[in-house]
């Protein structure tokens, strides 16, 4: 999708996000996620939904966070297949990374629903960074737009490039304005996602106790990163800590060992 398409989708009334929060501790099933028959059904902690796409975040008793992204209808195609609408645990495909597992439906060919399940107690920035990296490897750019913040860093880089062009070309100016709107909207979504993820982790790992919230986001709207592959919560970093922005994602690819399993367990 180009910036004009992204802008139309994000800023339309159908593209408006609506939050749902499980703040009563009820045993709500995650929307759009069927676990493998041998797995526990995660309890949904929060979700974000518009007329096109749905994001559901849940946790299990072992403290693992699961993020499922599904689509109810396409921006240009009203009807989608069932592979877009839910992850099917009995016939999914699994990709392993250092920090969790990434799932797609077995025959989705880079399209359709996807999900990510973490290991225990990962910081919010690490969860998002891992999901961004592996999604870029395993699903199409169009499908990543079902969770718009996954392509935010790429959009920021493209916007920076567009800002270097000053010629009075109406089409260029239109694209530049659309890029500004898209990046602003996605940044708001990113901040909302991080805040909700923090609360989800607080419920999962800290039994609802208050966690000190020092610095979560950079003033230029990019995420904080803990700078190390540890389970330490980056909210406890001192103000003079040396942190690294998420734009360094592509430089860290050698840290990830992504393997595709033989599907024997997931069929």
Supply database-style keywords.
eight-stranded antiparallel β-sheet; disordered C terminus; two-stranded parallel ribbon; 267 residues; 6 helices; alpha+beta
Structure description:
- It is a single chain.
- The protein contains six helices and ten strands.
- It is of the alpha+beta class.
- The chain has one domain.
- The strands form two sheets. Strands 1-3-4-5-9-8-7-10 form an eight-stranded antiparallel beta sheet. The protein has a two-stranded parallel sheet with strand order 2-6.
- β7 and β8 (100-105) form a beta hairpin.
Number of strands: 10
Mean pLDDT: 76
User: What is the total number of structural domains?
Assistant: 1
Could you describe the largest sheet, including whether it forms a barrel? 8 strands, antiparallel
Structural class: alpha+beta
Query: Proportion of β residues?
Result: 15-25%
The portion of residues assigned to helices is 25-40%
- Count every helix, treating DSSP H or I runs of 4 or more residues as helices: 6
Shape: globular
Strand numbers in spatial order across the main sheet: 1-3-4-5-9-8-7-10
Gap from first CA to last CA: 33 Å
Query: What is Rg?
Result: 18 Å
Parts with pLDDT < 50 across at least 5 consecutive residues: 208-267
Write the element-wise H/E pattern from the N-terminal end onward: HEEEEEHEEEEHHHHE
What is the compact description of this entry?
By secondary structure, the chain is of the alpha+beta class. The chain has helices spanning 3-11, 82-85, 124-138, 141-144, 152-163, 170-205; strands spanning 18-21, 33-34, 43-49, 53-59, 65-71, 87-88, 92-97, 100-105, 114-118, 259-260. It has one domain.
């Amino acid at each position: 999708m180009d910036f004009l398409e992204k802008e139309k989708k994000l800023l339309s009334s159908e593209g408006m996000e609506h939050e749902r929060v499980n703040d009563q501790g009820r045993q709500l099933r995650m929307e759009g996620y069927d676990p493998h028959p041998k797995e526990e059904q995660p309890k949904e902690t929060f979700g974000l939904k518009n007329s096109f796409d749905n994001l559901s975040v849940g946790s299990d008793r072992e403290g693992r966070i699961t993020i499922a992204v599904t689509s109810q209808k396409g921006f240009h195609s009203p009807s989608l297949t069932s592979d877009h609408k839910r992850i099917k645990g009995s016939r999914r495909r699994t990709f392993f990374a250092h920090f969790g597992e990434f799932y797609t439906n077995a025959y989705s060919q880079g399209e359709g629903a996807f999900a990510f399940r973490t290991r225990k107690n990962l910081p919010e920035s690490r969860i998002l960074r891992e999901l961004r990296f592996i999604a870029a490897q395993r699903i199409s750019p169009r499908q990543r737009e079902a969770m718009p913040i996954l392509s935010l860093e790429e959009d920021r880089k493209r916007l920076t490039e567009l800002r270097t062009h000053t010629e009075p070309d109406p089409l260029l100016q239109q694209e530049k304005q659309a890029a500004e709107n898209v990046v602003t909207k996605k940044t708001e979504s990113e901040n909302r996602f991080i805040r909700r993820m923090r609360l989800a982790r607080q419920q999962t790992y800290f039994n609802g106790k208050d966690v000190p919230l020092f610095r979560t986001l950079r003033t230029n709207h990019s995420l904080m990163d803990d700078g190390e592959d540890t389970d330490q919560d980056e909210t406890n970093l001192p103000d003079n800590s040396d942190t690294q922005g998420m734009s360094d994602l592509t430089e860290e690819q050698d840290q990830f060992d992504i393997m595709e399993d033989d599907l024997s367990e997931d069929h």
